[in-house]
Amino acid sequence: MGRWSVQAGEVYRGTERVAVHGLNWFGMGTPDRAPHGLWTGRSVESFMRQVRELGFTALRLPLSPQVIRPGYAAAPWARAYGPDGRSVLERVLGEAERAGLLVLLSFHTYDPNRLGHDLPGRPFGDGYTKADWLADLRTLAELAKRYPNVLGIDLCNEPHKLTWRAWAKLAAEAGREVLKTNPDLLVFVEGVANASDNGGYGANWGENLTRAGELPGIPGGKLVYSPHVYGPSVHHKPYFGAPEFPANLPHIWDVHFGHLVDKGYTLVIGEFGGRYAERDRLWQDAFVDYLLARPIRGFFYWSLNPNSADTGGLLHDDWRTVHEDKLELLKRLMR
């Protein structure tokens, strides 16, 4: 299949340019240690087939150490796919490969009991050490050798408690460990939040790449910057209430992450989404316009799941019916 690389905003598998049009499917980073929705009676295969038929090419899977390491029981409704989270993860990776879907493995939280607005905001702590984090990333990199549809590893979800300087140092070290273990992969690095320079505009967790640049030891052809960007559905920002909203947003996005395109870096949006109603609908429409204009071609929408409290999902609460307005929005990015 060839090695994964990036160049001028595009993702390549060998010499083949690959479109990364993805969805987040969460559950394996929670105490359930399995993708959510399986309790409905739908199979992993059924979800994968629907995702592919809708035109998406990739899934981002948020994980915790209790899925990376064997021995932590999966929820009873997922036991058909294995007794523990690790075996469920491997089954999901295999089904994704058979469905023709790419996968981004994301280290979501070291504590699966801390989710949503309680995410720890750093890759280690509370008894889970830096050595533990690096070892778990190496395990994922080794696992990916068996699944050529895995294009990369997202090193840490939303390190919002860290300054950019602190996070960049950790990300560079972690990225080197990943590539030393598996040089075929891409390294995805998210932004921080507001503990360091945000250009004067409050940033979402994972959005702030204002000071980003080279990371020592990570080749430019392996580095993907992956901001998380949200609108009024998730967290209010003063500039959402400005009279010129949403026309004021492109400048703010340029400050936070868009400037990296001009410097030759590749960006893939790791998360964006919302209820897609009222002002959030205006925000999402403006964001898709911005991605098309920049252009930033890759994305992972949050989320396939309808049980995301802030955003809802691409699927309605029956876990089957598609939110057609959201799909039409995303189709603009998939042309």
What does the model show?
The chain is built from 8 helices and 11 strands. It has one domain (4-331): Glycosidases (TIM Barrel). It has 335 residues and is of the alpha/beta class. Helix 5 links the parallel strand 7 (150-154) and strand 8. The chain is globular and about 55 Å long. Keywords: Carbohydrate metabolism, Cellulose degradation, Glycosidase, Hydrolase, Polysaccharide degradation. Belongs to the glycosyl hydrolase 5 (cellulase A) family. Its EC number is 3.2.1.4. Residues 22-308 form the Glycoside hydrolase family domain.
What keyword list fits this structure?
single chain; alpha/beta; TIM Barrel; 8 helices; polysaccharide degradation; about 325 residues; carbohydrate metabolism; eight-stranded parallel beta barrel
Q: Which shape, going by the Cα principal axes?
A: globular
Written as H for each helix and E for each strand, in order along the chain, the element string is: EEEEHEHHEHEHEEHEHEH
**Widest β-sheet, arrangement of strands:** 4-5-6-7-8-9-10-11
How large is the count of helical segments?
8
> Which CATH architecture?
Alpha-Beta Barrel
Total of domains: 1
